[in-house]
Design goal:
mainly alpha; 454 residues
């Protein structure tokens, strides 16, 4: 923990030092009003609340207490009134609770889990791979990447897959890190994600152009994630965590396949649904339809009645709704800090960098912002990308910056994917952050190298 804390403090200390020589610059944005970027000593002060929040979080201080302290500091530094803070607070919570797809996927996945769908799938996989758990780990990472890329939402995919992975092999740090890495590079380059939509809107370029530009880099990092998951499971000599229950042992392969149908359909809807919807011009496999179809399949294919299936669906929403409420409160404090211009100030460091280092510095700044504020990456991009666009950076560089923010979000205590991993693998989120750090930071180094040479 000390090394991680020292690394975080060193990163921000370096950024703060650079602020001392800043000149006044202005951000380009699609909004009609353009706010000036903090400069000089004031820029240093605006970032101070972020540093304090990070330190408190790594010291295991409650998320909301840390956010409150940082938020109050930002109010004092930025002269933000209580009325303004109240408005920000009331807007942040509904914004988080409006992220409906992860809520729906979480509820459905829990219903499938409770009905025994994942247990049956686990039994089928166990019988098929003859104990080679590393292949199962690689398979989970591929599914995570594919589901996130096609749906555009990492948190919803993690809600579906994390419980299955935990039931199979337990909380293997490398597998969790691999899933998070796959999610980060997928939702920041997905044709269906909010992040891609934000990039298209800010740059004025078609989504298809951005997706095509970034697809090779997405594939590179997905392959790396698969290798991390495979090697981690193999090196730890992972075994399946639980023996088959008597009920499972007594079921034939045909019965197991029948019980697994709801889980397979849910995965199909998340993976292929967006393409089918686009082809037909209607959400035939949108959240509304696949929610009811999955609940119906649970009632038809498992021991659950229709009432039990519906009850499991409602109960399954409890965890993520609670976490989204918590994250919404914390995000309010982060947004208060954003009002001081802190995030724009961090990104503007790239402006003072030598031209050859401009893109790597912008990527690093995006990563630095993603760590404390990674609850909603799309929102962060609306804060940081206008500055990058004013630098005249090409679409490829904009994509690298988005990836950098995505990687930072996978070390964030408030990111939905991280919350889903904590829940699915039944470990504290601090453990997820610490387990991810080595692999996410290594991926960041690779991304910086790619952004420098490309």
């Amino acid at each position: 923990m000390k090394k991680t804390l020292f690394g975080a403090m060193t990163m921000f200390t370096t950024l703060l030092f650079v602020f001392g020589s800043q000149v006044t610059v202005f951000a380009a944005a699609t909004a009609p009003v353009v706010k000036p970027i903090p400069t000089g000593f004031y820029a240093l002060l605006t970032v101070l609340p972020i540093v304090v929040i990070l330190i408190l979080l790594f010291k295991k201080v409650n998320m909301l207490v840390a956010g409150l302290i940082g938020g109050v500091m930002a109010m004092v530094i930025g002269g933000i009134t209580l009325g303004q803070a109240n408005t920000i607070f009331l807007a942040a919570i509904p914004a988080m609770l409006s992220i409906t797809v992860p809520i729906i996927n979480s509820a459905i996945a829990t219903a499938v889990f409770k009905s025994g769908g994942y247990a049956s799938a686990l039994a089928l996989v166990r019988r098929g791979i003859k104990g080679r758990v590393e292949y199962f780990a690689a398979f989970i990472v591929i599914l995570m990447a594919a589901a996130t890329y096609m749906s555009g939402i990492g948190g919803g995919s993690a809600m579906v897959l994390a419980p299955l992975a935990f039931a199979a092999v337990g909380a293997i740090p490398e597998l969790i890190a691999a899933m998070c890495l796959a999610a980060a590079v997928s939702f920041t380059t997905s044709p269906a994600s909010l992040e891609t939509g934000v990039i298209s809107k800010l740059t004025g370029l078609p989504v298809a152009d951005y997706v095509a530009t970034m697809r090779p880099y997405w594939l590179v990092f997905v392959v790396i994630a698969v290798i991390i998951g495979f090697v981690g499971a193999k090196r730890r000599k992972a075994l399946f965590q639980s023996e088959e229950t008597e009920e499972i042992k007594n079921k034939s392969t045909k019965e197991l396949w029948l019980n697994t149908v709801p889980a397979l359909f849910l995965l199909f809807a998340v993976l292929v649904g967006p393409y089918i919807n686009k082809a037909l011009g209607m959400p035939i496999l949108g959240p509304l339809m696949y929610m009811f179809i999955t609940v119906g399949l649970i009632a038809l294919c498992t021991k659950f009645s229709l009432k039990e299936s519906a009850d499991a669906l409602i109960d399954g929403s409890t965890y993520i709704l609670t976490r989204l409420f918590q994250v919404g409160i914390f995000l309010a404090f982060i947004n208060i800090i954003g009002e001081t211009g802190a995030f724009s100030a961090i990104v503007s460091v790239a402006k003072s960098a030598p031209e050859v280092m401009m893109v790597p510095v912008a990527v690093l700044a995006g990563f630095a912002i993603g760590v404390p504020a990674g609850a909603y990456v799309g929102t962060i991009l609306t804060l940081v990308l206008p500055v990058a666009i004013t630098l005249g950076l090409p679409l490829q560089a904009i994509g690298f910056i988005a990836m950098g923010v995505g990687l930072g979000s996978q070390m964030s205590f408030v990111n939905i994917t991280m919350q889903a991993q904590s829940s699915g693998f039944q470990i504290p989120i601090l453990q997820v952050v610490k387990g991810n750090s080595k692999y996410i930071l290594a991926s960041l180094v690779l991304l910086l190298a790619i952004s420098f040479f490309a």
